[in-house]
Design a protein that fits this description.
This protein is an alpha/beta fold and about 350 residues long. Helix content is about 35%, strand content about 25%.
Length: about 350
Amino acid sequence: MIHFEHPQLLWLLLLIPLFVALWILLGIRKRKQLSQFADRSMFGRLIPDASRWRPAFKYSLIMLAAAFLVLAIANPQEGSKMVKGERLGSDVAVCLDISNSMMAEDIQPNRLERSKRFVTNLLNALGSDRVSLVVFAGSSYVQMPLTNDYSAVKLFLDQIDCSLISVQGTAIGDAIEQAMKTFGYGDADREWVKNQGRAIVIISDGENFEDDAVSAARAAAAEDVRICTIGMGLPEGTPIPEYRNGRRVGYKRDRRGNTVTTRLDEGTLTAIAHAGRGVYVRATNINSGVHEIVKVIENLEKENYGEAVFSEYESRYQYPLAAVLVCLVAELLLFERRNRKFNLDSLLKKKTPNTNAK
């Protein structure tokens, strides 16, 4: 069975019908312009060497080459076989802020949904690393312990919303401590061994009012755990939507009736990342920052999690790539105008005997 290594690239094939339709429209427009200078029946005399089917055939070859090129880039693969090998990876704890301020819509659709998409993209980019999931607001708890079952993590991730924790606020320091516990730190039944194969990824707007997150990050870094922070939101500030029964009823207000605004605190998140010997990345509607975090994780020490069985495929991109070359060479060898000496009509006239000859 054939599958593609990069199936998302196949969406580019939808551009080919668009280019074909555009080419047809330009051809119709060109014929209308020519009809203003001469009658259509005179075209054969004015342009005797013009061919009606050659330009269309040449363009079809170009579009066919483009389609095969997309297939080659998507890398078709087949012939899966099971291969045994070592499963090497690192331990990554993801701390997700679910305070009410994460419902702000300064990045679309809102900060929380954008954060969940970030976690999904991060999981898709990881290999054999183990991942735990911690949610926090005014307090924190472990939503998912360390696991390499990314499907289970995504399942728990879909269930996360701001109502999971009733205590509001943003206690990043407590979330760091919970993340350390998922690594086994402080567990009396397990011996803690330092290694540089652990990282904590904090996704928040940075408005920390509950504890000293920088000190918690510094303590984690002392145990060789790197801390990276992802900033969700805009520093300009935006109101916090208020919902009842799933419907927006307005924006949050303080006791004086003023609208409560929330803004991205990049200073706090940068300080936490600096204390944790990690990096700070600001997420936007265009750049999620996943690649920067993946680079950090890839540079962590890898631990052997035992033997695993992997699926291995053979790439077959050579075949569509060869088809691309054939189409392009054929397009180059085919001229738009007819050859007066070598064409189908002249060949037929030579082969057809003259029945009137005596």
